[in-house]
Amino acid sequence: MYKISGISLISLALALNSCGGTSTENNQTTDSTATDSVIVTEDAHSYSNVSDVYSTHLHLNLNVDFDRKVLAGNVIHEIVNVNGVSEIIFDMNDVNILKVTLDEDTAGVQFKIGEDDELLGSPLTVQIKPETKKVVIWYESDPSSNSLQWLNPQQTAGKKLPYLYTQGQAVLTRTWIPCQDTPLKRITYSADITTPKNLMAVMSANNPQEKNPEGKYHFDMPQAIPTYLIALAVGDLSFSELGARTGVYTEPSMMDKCVYEFADVEKMVEAAEELYGEYKWGRYDIIVLPPSFPFGGMENPKLTFATPTILSGDRSLVSLIAHELAHSWSGNLVTNATWDDFWLNEGFTVYIENRIMEKLYGKEHADMLLSIENQELEDENHDLSSSGNGEDTHLKLDLDGRDPDEGMTTIAYVKGCLFLKTLEAAAGREKFDPFLKSYFETHQFQPVTTEMFVEFLNTNLLEPNKIEFNTDEWIYGEGIPDNCIKIESDRFDKVSEKAALVTSITSAKELEIKRTDWSTQEWMHFIRHIPAEADAAKMEMLDNEFQFGTCGNSEIMAEWYLISIQKGYDKINGPMEDFLINVGRRKFLQPLYEELAKTEDGLVLAKKIYAKARPNYHSVSSGTIDEILGWQE
Ligand code: BES
Ligand code: ZN
Prior knowledge:
Blueprint: E1 6-11, H1 12-17, E2 38-43, E3 53-65, E4 70-81, E5 87-92, E6 95-102, E7 111-113, E8 122-127, E9 134-141, E10 149-151, E11 163-165, E12 187-194, E13 200-203, E14 216-225, E15 232-235, E16 238-241, E17 246-250, H2 255-261, H3 265-276, E18 284-288, E19 297-298, E20 303-306, H4 319-326, E21 334-336, H5 342-361, H6 363-386, H7 410-427, H8 429-442, E22 446-448, H9 450-462, H10 471-476, H11 490-500, H12 520-528, H13 536-546, H14 554-566, H15 573-582, H16 586-596, H17 600-613, H18 619-629
Parallel strand pairs: 3-12, 17-18, 18-20, 21-22
Antiparallel strand pairs: 1-2, 3-4, 4-9, 5-8, 6-9, 7-8, 10-11, 11-15, 12-14, 13-15, 16-17, 19-20
Residues 169-170, 295-299, 320, 323-324, 327, 346, 405, 408, 413, 587 line the site of ligand BES.
């Protein structure tokens, strides 16, 4: 069913030769330079024929039409036809193509739209000449585009003006831009975006800091990026500086909270640079979106997209910013060649995130963060193995014929990170840090396969230092290898002791703990370790003392609702319903709906809530919840 035509050759020569080869150019993956050894890699999630002809720059001319919920205009692709072929194939999904023209010629040329696949869309094949330099595609996005979320004023903080944002990763950019939508290739881009007056547009590019009275915005993205990182947001935005090269965009009423929360962002950039070399993207800004945003964060270059659920008021959830910032090296600078190599993006990023957190806030805090994630890994690893999905516990995946989203598990994130932590322990930081730095330098602005990383690891770390390491077991084997480093936290051990007391006490005062004594992470650990025997009455006792269910900290509330459902503590249903209606972050929604759906009464409640909540969710989240609840539109 999934026809593969996105085949590309990646030069391994570059990877092998050079620990020291520092090129500051934005190198394209050049097929023609692949002389020595060559890896042939295919992207099962793209129809594009990038090994024959590929786009190096795209320019967007788009009008943002909130009434019709469409983006309308054209995209101009500048192409390089390495093999002199007579057709170029783009990816598109639910996009209405009006015409296609070549170079300066205004007469339309022939194009063909292939069979539609629900996930991957269709190949758009355009007849070209060997000398064709530009392909112009005139189109409109569809109101049902899976990338775009069109919010009405009621769904925003200000309640007065509409809002639009895009989500590209993994295969959604093609639902608003016909393009060769594969991480195997990189493009620069530019854009002219017209919005209604009173709104500001921002992109993963050089951004304005003020509204334009005519609603006309020009963007340039001079660094080459994979297409999944092209992003746009339009709304009633204001901007505030955080540091010399960092800042935040959000709706005016959210600004003070954001500026407070992100006080340390400039320091995070400096910490990451000390470890892994220069930040290559100019500015690092953050946009805090409306609560429907389906992810915690998305690492769109120059402009991280973030959920407002990290605004805890006490800066305790900022590791998410460290994570998205870390992608400026792992993911955006050095990119997974295909979605099977997704762990190269996320595992490295979780590792770097933790290093940044350690540098800023100390090892004790960093260990607690990792321990929280490690618990999630242990649970998911167990679930996958015991449900016959052991192959999904490999770092290197085989997602051919599947949604790349299915690779978004704690395996890629946390097992990936623990692999690097274990390597770090074997080699010592004094060797491991320069090794990682040189990995980024050597492969900057390039796609990398898992096999290329292994080769680089052997040549530059393991062999020169005579380190024996079970790399293959980690990457191609199931579960967590025995040599995995242990994540320990004394602070968490003390919290576990308190949690164990819950069954025997009759008043929460007996715990001798105030709400302000512990960090967010300690409270999360506490809630997770409330004993199985504790009943709904004990939950009420704790809630009366600590107000977990209404505390305003999204991570604590989500943990609390989950075990409240398990224990039948239904006094929480009101606040939980508000949370599910307002927040669209899939990481929170999915476990709660899954837990509700386990009982008959729970399922009834879940469906009642979902009927109200669904219009607030982005397609990424509603797609997942539709499946859990067996929901038919
Ligand atoms: N790049 C991911 C989000 C993503 C992954 C979107 C795959 C689509 C497909 C982002 O960097 C991420 O990992 N976000 C996490 C944050 C985190 C682990 C701190 C999230 O949204 O929960
Ligand atoms: Zn990430």
